[in-house]
């Protein structure tokens, strides 16, 4: 049996490369050997990083060059009552973060939502996109490719769906810029976030495009998808789940629990989240939706880089007959309950807290339920932070909880 020290020796001697140790030893031994080498080079002790609580081979499809794991504290807020399209009843929401005061704030929002009878949430559009870019000779060829794409949707769908049991191609939208043509493929990926699924399926469809037209594929992703970058197309057309949550809170609850008034929150929302964001040229017309998206992404094994799209959200706040109506609409929330990081043991338990680990029945319903829970968490966070700003409690809250 190879031990970590001798594995590290073989790397030093140039016999093995740093990233191929798993082929020669148990995955935990391989991570230990890398820690020895990194410690030697950097002086970092890595004792805490090496003290992880799951077998390293479980993370095989989630990371390369593994040396251990970082730990982020995880807590829960709620239970909060949700009337959703895919989930209904009371649920705790898991959040992992290092920002003190965040869970206190979202928890306050949840308890206020509960006092108001619960939040409503719905996924209103769903589809994961991949947009390859093709080179054509000129605008006339671009037009021909657009027309060919419109006339041959079934051929593209057949090729794409050959690669997946669950994915369904919903549509292909062409965009032309000079002699570059972008075909934005949109899939129903059911309970998977779907980025690998959509990429593999689109690769197969691109082979048909190249075989049947004069176009040449330049790249399987042409950035009009748009993945992991701020982009107006996601805010307008949606990507992943487009999900909205709202609540009507009685005036006395706002006054007693949030120490402010519906009028103050509504004015603040207009001046901060709407006008301030517009002046800043922001896509995020909200206060801190990214906080809840990031914390719930970490707690449930989502791809954390997609917090960029998750923050594409608009918060509204209006006074209705003296009470406070608040909503949050997340245009592009990319979530899954199968695949990716959802398979890791702590993240699976995070999904279990909501009851959405694995595939749903019908397929897609677990990922919809997760999206609705994140939207309600974001609603609670917006409500609490807006109230803290309106009542001038933000700095004192962070002085007390966050340092
Ligand atoms: C801190 C509070 C909640 C105090 O608010 P409070 O009303 O003084 O608290 P309270 O002691 O009266 O408790 C009210 C409820 O809050 C919850 N709560 C209260 N304390 C805890 C705790 N320790 N652990 C768990 N839950 C807690 C709990 O639900 C409690 O109800 P109870 O269960 O007692 O009936 C409030 O001042 C607050 O929400 N402040 C806002 C903090 C915040 O939202 N920070 C988010 C990060 S800000 C940021 O990152 C983005 C930013 C600001 O830059 C974006 C921008 O530009 O806007
Ligand atoms: N490739 C890329 O460009 C990018 C990849 N990523 C990474 O992609 C990963 C996520 O991709 P994703 O495709 O979601 O996950 P996986 O690649 O882990 O694939 C998940 C697979 O689970 C199967 N499956 C089983 N049950 C279900 C169900 N109920 N609903 C849907 N699928 C089911 C599907 O197989 P089948 O298809 O056979 O039906 C699906 O393809 C993350 O690790 C992320 O970090 C992120 C951004 C870009």
Characterization of this structure:
The protein has 403 residues and is α+β, with helices and mostly antiparallel strands. Helices cover 43% and strands 22% of the residues. The protein is built from 14 helices and ten strands. Strands 1, 2, 3, 4, 5, 6, 7, 8, 9 and 10 form a ten-stranded mixed sheet that branches. A hairpin with a 2-residue loop joins strand 9 (313-320) and strand 10. Helix 1 (4-12) crosses helix 2 (27-42), helix 5 packs across helix 6 and helix 9 (262-280) crosses helix 13. The longest helix has 26 residues, at 365-390. The protein is globular, with a radius of gyration of 24 Å. The two termini are 47 Å apart. The model has no long low-confidence stretch (mean pLDDT 97). Bound molecules: 3-hydroxy-3-methylglutaryl-coenzyme A and NADPH dihydro-nicotinamide-adenine-dinucleotide phosphate. NADPH dihydro-nicotinamide-adenine-dinucleotide phosphate binds next to helix 6.
- Structural class determined from secondary elements: alpha+beta
Helix count, DSSP H or I runs of 4 or more residues: 14
Helix content: 40-55%
| Poorly predicted ranges | none
Shape: globular
Which ligands accompany this protein? 3-hydroxy-3-methylglutaryl-coenzyme A, NADPH dihydro-nicotinamide-adenine-dinucleotide phosphate
Strand count, sense and barrel status of the largest sheet are: 10 strands, mixed
- What proportion strand? 15-25%
Helix and strand sequence: HHEEHEEHHEEHEHEHHHHEEHHH
**Mean pLDDT over the residues:** 97
Beta-strand segment tally: 10
